[in-house]
Amino acid sequence: MFCGKMAETKENIDLPDREYEGVFELLRYIYTDEVCLTGSNGMQVSFLAEKYMIPCLAKECVAYLRKNLDSSSLFYILKHAQQFANEDLLYHCWDFIDTKKTRS
User: How far apart are CA 56 and CA 80, in angstroms?
Assistant: First the structure.
């Protein structure tokens, strides 16, 4: 997309499937090896890390999502884990559901 024979020639490259905050954190990571994950951008950055094949960032995002998994984010994270076949995150989501079910 950015270099090679098939590189975009436009001055601006649109990424219609992502929001500014997620793309900003992806670029921050690429240039500085640092990322600031939050509740509003964690899934976006994770999606972009998977899409653009940046495994170190994807791993960091999964750790963040696992740590911040709660009832309000569970199904959104579960869908993401299924989409990218992330067994670790899938297991963590199902374990969270089982734990909640046994407490009820």
Answer: 17
